[in-house]
Write a structure and sequence with these properties.
By secondary structure, the chain is α+β, with helices and mostly antiparallel strands. It contains 3 helices and 5 strands; from the N terminus they run αααβββββ.
């Protein structure tokens, strides 16, 4: 009984140390993944571009001066992140339900990547 309290404190301290190390490693790896100069960043951008190409696939209407005033907040083909993935995507439509702006994004911690595409432009 006398050794139970020190043993309990040792287990708590060791567990806190291990959890802290996992936290620090995940923060460092998260920053490496979303550093714009890293290969992981470039792979993430290419993967999001591929999602946009398969999602929009020539269905977007031409973007001109009028399209901005006709843009609606309605979205179609919305895919929200689940338990495993942190990627979400969708298409903004006009008030006439025509697809005008497709987007795909990925968020890791406090950093995120967003790619939006109109019929003739891509914004990263």
């Amino acid at each position: 009984m006398r050794f139970l309290l020190p043993l309990f404190m040792l287990v708590i301290m060791a567990g806190s140390f291990i959890i802290g190390m996992f936290y620090l490693i995940s923060r460092v790896l998260g920053q490496l993944n979303l550093d714009p100069e890293s290969q992981a960043w470039k792979n993430t951008v290419e993967r999001l571009r591929a999602r946009l190409q398969s999602q929009a696939a020539g269905a977007l209407i031409p973007w001109d001066k009028e399209t901005l005033s006709l843009l609606s907040l309605n979205q179609t083909m919305v895919k929200k992140p689940g338990l495993i993935g942190s990627t979400y995507e969708g298409v903004f439509t006009t008030i006439y339900q025509e697809p005008a702006l497709a987007y795909a994004a990925q968020k890791k911690g406090s950093t995120s990547v967003l790619i939006a595409r109109t019929s003739d432009r891509e914004i990263t």
